[in-house]
Amino acid sequence: MLSIPVPQPVPTLAVSGGGAFPVHRIYCVGRNYAAHTREMGFDPNREEPFFFLKPADALVASGKDIAYPPMTHDFQHEIELVVAIGEGGRAISAEQAHRHVFGYAVGLDMTRRDLQMNARKQGRPWDMGKGFDESAPCAPLIPASVCGYLERGAICLEVNGEVRQKSDIAHLIWSVPEVIQHLSRFVTLCPGDLIFTGTPEGVGPVRAGDVMEGHVDGLEDLWTTVVAPRLV
Ligand code: MN
User: Which of 60, 117, 194, 229 is positioned for an S-S bond with 137, CB 3.0–4.6 A?
Assistant: First the structure.
């Protein structure tokens, strides 16, 4: 008899006000704020948006610790607006995109920057730089029926009480509807998908003991503490 345990049930994200959102896939947009695109060494002149993924079980609920991950000396924060898809579809137009949005949350696209940069240099996939254990801390979702469709508002990240990233989601190069339009040309979006929409400028390293507090106007704040690496 096989004794392999059945993988964990579907990861879920709490919904503010009650309920749990079942998470299907986590998509992320690369370089979607001009100032961050420049700090990463690229021209933000509206290159087509591009996407990568994290495993759904990389999610970590707000308030839980994340361990400093293995195989890196440059573990970095990227604060992001997260969009949750409530209704699936493919080849969705920007005009129709809002009806596919269930809600929004504050998320962190935690990154092993040294691995990502090395992969970038060698033309290799980003997965080990981006899609690792506990790489997607996320605050509870706020339904769009409560907060409306977000188009502007401050986004910021504090580390140990000091502001490290600060911008406005109005500065997204590709707006949420445009991101949904592009992504749904490549894949069928499904209920339960999350889209991390990109980070503004000011990314940088964290170390064990650091407390991160993420904020987007109108949403619930995200809290997480980096703790010592997990023992093997
Ligand atoms: Mn990112």
Answer: 60
